[in-house]
Amino acid sequence: MLWFILRRCGSAVIVLFMGSVLIFLGIRALPGDPATVMAGDEASPAVVAAIRQEFGLDKPLPAQYLDYVTQTLTGNFGRSTQDQLPVIDIIAQRLPVTLELSALAMLVAIVIGVGAGIVAAVRRGRTADYVATGFGLAGLSVPHFWLGLLGILLFAVTWRVLPASGYVPFSEDPAQNLQRMILPSLVLGAGFAAILMRQTRSAMLGALSADYVRTARSKGLSETKVVGAHALRNSLTTVVTVLGLQLGALISGAVVTEQIFVIPGFGKLTVDAVLTRNYPVIQAVVLVTVAGYVLVNLLVDVAYAFLNPRIRLSGARHD
Amino acid sequence: MSLLEITDLSVGFDTEDGLVQAVRDISLTLDEGEILALCGESGCGKSVTAMSVPRLLPPDTTRLSGSVKLDGRELTTLPEAEMRQVRGKSVSVVFQEPMTSLNPSFTVGYQIAEVLRRHEKLSRRDADRRATELLELVGIPAAARRMKEYPHQLSGGMRQRVMIAIAVACQPRVLIADEPTTALDVTIQAGVLDVFRDLRDRLGTAIILITHDLGVVADIADRAVVMYAGRAVEQATVAELFAAPRHPYTLGLMNALPSAAVDGRLAEIPGMVPSPLSDPDECAFHDRCPRVQTDCRMSRPPLVRQGEEHLAACFHPGGQS
């Protein structure tokens, strides 16, 4: 198991390296120049050239990349071209916000999605199944921004039960923080919950018709035990796979959701940084995102091995 | 009073094509320590008959009538919660497919101990100890090590033994074995049958053995019920049945045994089983029967006594002993 994790970490380093090259070249291929944006519309060419030199943007690309990598490896992500603040500080400030939003959205998705999926499978062909499947289809079809606006309109404007937007750090006021996070995490988690519901439902349907479930019933076990232990355990691999695969969607969803609810998170930071061609920030943001993605996939693989004894043992034999 | 009494049991299933009648008016009894074989070809209703006892048929679509009594207690109308006390404790089942009937995500030990903890209220440790003993009882070597293994690490024969260990864990009154040897190699089959015989001798367990293999019937069973198209067509002690089969279908089954083959060819029964959707008043076997006469098409022959402890449903029974 340890060797398996180590090997995974090795491949993570390669993924991170390739990610860094791609993003470095990608943003430089975009039209527009950070120096011009920083200097403003009225600036003279001399000022722009000075700014270029200050940030090392006048060097050839390979030299710039080398600077970037050596800096990054020493934990220095550079300074934002926008406000001169160290990028690492900006990230340290924004990342927890998005992590909280994503974690809450994922919690919403797991509770609603897996719960509704199990109910739909057990009550197959009955009202509960149709209701869950119907909401699942709606959850998949409705875009984030529309759901977000609808949520603001209903909960904040019409019923006045939740604030429309804004963010309060958890450390300052946990109650306020959670209250403001309810709507965004529901909006972000809805589509995710729908996908999880459908996958859980079909996995559970398969498991419930399996011979080992009949065996469990023949032992006189309660239906809770039959469904919750015997059938669910074998469906969880599917659920975990979907969780891992959907993380990318969760991040891009966070970008939109943070814009709607004016939450100062990673998503909003990314959008702002791209708009101002803020190279150091974009590079750092993407690198952190890639790292997060790799980490989650590693966790998914470990979870697989934990859930499915066949994977665990075949892995051990080959190592 | 017999241990198990099934009276006029009929079982149908709601399907998109209408009601499919799988079992019609079956009556049979099972005594303590007796091994009763239910035989017949695929779809004749032998499994459905047996699964009606622990009520393991899909509840939404099953239409069941008649009576199933265990120790005089009616099971068909028992509330589900009480039925769960019966399943795995008084009546347990060994399923046909050892490959898929064990849960791949739990250790063998857990799956045996689970039923002990459910019914015998044993602690985890006591249940584990008892489960290890059970593995030894069914003939699995290095039982303590096997306890921690998962089903995919075991061979088919071993898995079937684990299934048997689960089924006998709570010393059931009735054990239902649904084609327990079909998926196994011939060499392993004999070993599994020995385990059943041993259980009957040691614990007095009554066994319903579902099989299409007359060789298995001759080997282990005391009595046999031959089923065809959802009905019992012949019922006798095994000695009596093999010595003097009355129903032409039973005779056909015996002739289809490899040991009875003439010139290296198996004798098949010509024709097809009638559809379970309709049930005309005639002998269901008349299309395929070598002894068919006009009366077989006019009405259905009842299951009547043909000798001591020998019943057959045929107007023209053969093989008078």
Task: Characterise this structure.
Chain A has 2 domains: 2-73, no CATH class; 96-276, MetI-like (MetI-like fold, Orthogonal Bundle), CATH 1.10.3720. Mean pLDDT of chain A is 85; it is low at 315-319. Chain A is 79% helix and 0% strand. Chain A has 319 residues and is mainly alpha-helical. In chain A, helix 8 (174-208) runs antiparallel to helix 11 (247-261). Chain A has 14 helices and no strands. Chain B is globular, with a radius of gyration of 20 Å. In chain B, the strands form 2 sheets. An 8-stranded mixed beta sheet of chain B has the order 6-7-8-3-9-10-12-11. In chain B, strands 2-1-4-5 form a 4-stranded antiparallel beta sheet. Chain B has 2 domains: 4-228, Rossmann fold; 245-321, no CATH class. In chain B, helix 3 (108-119) packs across helix 4, helix 3 runs parallel beside helix 6 and helix 4 (124-137) crosses helix 6 (156-168). The mean pLDDT of chain B is 90. With 321 residues, chain B is of the alpha/beta class. In chain B, helix 7 (186-203) links the parallel strand 7 (174-178) and strand 8. Chain B has helices at residues 46-51, 80-86, 108-119, 124-137, 143-147, 156-168, 186-203, 214-220, 238-243, 248-255, 294-298; strands at residues 4-15, 18-30, 35-39, 62-70, 73-74, 91-94, 174-178, 206-211, 223-228, 231-237, 304-307, 310-312. The A-B interface holds A 210-212, 214-222, 230, 233-234, 307-310, 313 and B 54, 56, 84-89, 92-93, 95, 97, 100-107, 114-115, 118-119, 150, 152-153, 163, 166.
List the helices and strands and how they pair.
The complex is a heterodimer of chains A (319) and B (321).
Chain A lengths: L1 H28 L4 H6 L5 H10 L6 H13 L13 H36 L4 H15 L2 H15 L15 H35 L2 H8 L4 H23 L1 H15 L4 H10 L3 H29 L1 H10 L1
Helix pairs in contact in A: 1-13, 5-6, 5-8, 5-10, 5-11, 5-13, 6-8, 7-8, 7-11, 8-10, 8-11, 9-10, 10-13, 11-12, 12-13, 13-14
Chain B lengths: L3 E12 L2 E13 L4 E5 L6 H6 L10 E9 L2 E2 L5 H7 L4 E4 L13 H12 L4 H14 L5 H5 L8 H13 L5 E5 L7 H18 L2 E6 L2 H7 L2 E6 L2 E7 H6 L4 H8 L38 H5 L5 E4 L2 E3 L9
Parallel strand pairs in B: 3-8, 3-9, 6-7, 7-8
Antiparallel strand pairs in B: 1-2, 1-4, 4-5, 9-10, 10-12, 11-12
Helix pairs in contact in B: 3-4, 3-6, 4-6, 6-7
